[in-house]
Amino acid sequence: MYSSFAARCTLEQVAPHQNWTSVLWEMCPAILSPRPTSSLPTIPASLPAPSLAVAVRMRTFYITGAEVPVRPSGFRQEDNQESANPVHLRRSLRLSVTMAACAGGPGSWSENILKYFLRNNQITAEDGAEILWSHAANHKSQMNEALKSAAHMIEADVLLPSDGSEHGQPIMAHPPETSSDNTLQEWLAEVVKSNKGIKLDFKSLAAVRASMLFLDNMKQHLQRPVWINADILPGPNGSSKVVDAKAFLDTVTSFFPDVTFSLGWTTGWHPKKVNEGYSWSMVKEMDYICSELTQPVTFPVRAALVRQSCSQLLWLLTKSNRYSLTVWTGKDDIYSTEDLLYIRDYFNKTQVFYDISEPQNHEFKQAIGIRGHSLRI
Question: Domain coordinates of the chain in residue numbers?
Answer without folding.
Answer: 7-99, 113-368
